[in-house]
Design brief:
about 190 residues; six-stranded mixed β-sheet; about 35% helix
């Protein structure tokens, strides 16, 4: 399978990793992050240098190799994380691996729910924009708890063209997406 997800935080990988066995694709700089980078490498994440167009072809080849081995692939085609209000437009290049391999494309929408009395999920759980990593990471551990909901799309996303496939996957993700809870401040 080729699983497509919206992207809200570094927490997304942990949430999906507990539910789906597959190979994650991530931007290259994450490989060098303390803690998160080590964990990403440990679970076999593939990394792509997005700024280099020539790097895309070899990554698509590596994704195809994973798919040929019978492994699922999990991608975040928004290309960045967001505050969880909507699903950002999908980048199309990695969808070439699904088409070339002939594997089904499925979607999942992530949603975080912050408990009452803490900052809203858009600030306490979603990690986006210019938020500093360490304060956010430590803040997650100070929360009394939180929920993450994974909502899988009911059907395989059909298409025979990379750009149409990305558009159809975006629409299918939006169809099962719910904004992350706004929470309340104490």
């Amino acid at each position: 399978f080729f699983l497509v997800s919206n992207h809200l935080s570094y927490l997304d990988v942990f949430a999906l990793w507990t539910a789906v066995e597959g190979t994650f694709l991530s931007k290259a700089e994450i490989a060098h992050w303390p803690v998160i980078g080590a964990l990403a490498r440990a679970v076999g994440t593939l990394f792509v240098t997005r700024e280099k167009r020539l790097a895309v072809g070899p990554v698509v080849d590596r994704l195809c190799a994973e798919l040929a081995r019978g492994r699922g692939v999990i991608v975040f085609p928004e290309g960045t994380s967001s505050r969880g209000e909507t699903v950002l437009p999908f980048r199309t290049s990695m969808f070439a691996a699904a088409l070339r391999s002939g594997v089904p494309v499925r979607v999942v929408a992530l949603r975080y729910e912050a408990p009452a009395g803490v900052p809203p999920a858009s600030r306490s759980l979603c990690w986006w924009g210019d938020m500093e990593f360490l304060p956010h990471f430590l803040g997650v551990f100070q929360l009394p708890g939180f929920r993450v909901r994974l909502t899988f799309g009911p059907e395989v996303v059909p298409s025979d063209d990379r750009k149409r496939l990305a558009h159809a996957a975006h629409s299918a993700t939006l169809a099962v997406f719910e904004p992350s809870s706004i929470g309340t401040e104490s």
